[in-house]
Specification:
The protein is α+β, with helices and mostly antiparallel strands. It has one domain. Helix content is 48%, strand content 19%. The chain is built from three helices and three strands, in the order αααβββ. It has helices at 2-17, 24-40, 48-63, and strands at residues 67-73, 78-84, 93-98. β1 (67-73) and β2 (78-84) form a beta hairpin. The longest helix has 17 residues, at 24-40.
Length: 103
Amino acid sequence: MSKMNNMNNMNNKNKKNIILERTKEERQSEVRTIISKLNQLHLKTSYDEIKELFRHMKTYVDEAKRVEINIPFPGMNVLIKGVLETDINKRVWVKLECLDKGE
């Protein structure tokens, strides 16, 4: 019986180590959501910082690489932060964080 338990424990450990990656279509869908929100906020590619964000998103979609985003955007007094995750079990997120905390 203990041999069976050991095998079950090994199988459970192996399952935890498996990383399911997003497909290209899933990555494109995540990026479309971000672009839609940028459009709602009227943040267009006329800003260099938004162009840089688009370059990061292109890398994420085309190369299936996890991308950490940290783009200062002083013209809007924000920092564009986020993570474009390839692991399906982790969240893809981008936010605009205020640079001036109002001291």
